[in-house]
Fold this sequence. Notes:
Number of domains: 1
Radius of gyration: 18 Å
Structural class: mainly alpha
Strand content: 5-15%
CATH topology: Arc Repressor Mutant, subunit A
Shape: globular
Largest sheet: 2 strands, antiparallel
Strand order of the largest sheet: 1-2
Order of helices and strands: HHHEEHHHH
Amino acid sequence: MRISAKADYAVRATAELAAAKLGTTMKAEQLAHSQEIPLKFLLNILIELKHAGLVHSHRGADGGFALARSADLITIADVIRAVEGPLATVQDIRPENLRYTGAAAELQSVWVAVRSSLRTVLEEVTLADLVGGSLPQSVSRLAGRPEAWISH
């Protein structure tokens, strides 16, 4: 799976918002600087996150962005879906809508399993987990396997 810069930036920006004191807003410039995200790109991401109901904004001198709900209620999957759409598609088609024949007949099941595997991790980790440094045990176990750190 390839995680786009947009998805990575969205998760990093929402993590910064989650780490902010409750009720505190952060300016886009501050978010961009803290995570080294290009400001123009971040502004577009924040608009998408706002449309998805994950962040809200306030105008004025004390304005900025804040999470729209508690960080323990927002998963990494929520953030990625807000900016990228479904977690796993094949040529922009959801796996359950694909049909293969012949030697590739079982490929649909493989793509569905890949999506399920992604969900197992991304829907389990909340922004609060990420910011608090305490990932769910199942995720820590997966990341702790030596072979997980080897690129192929």
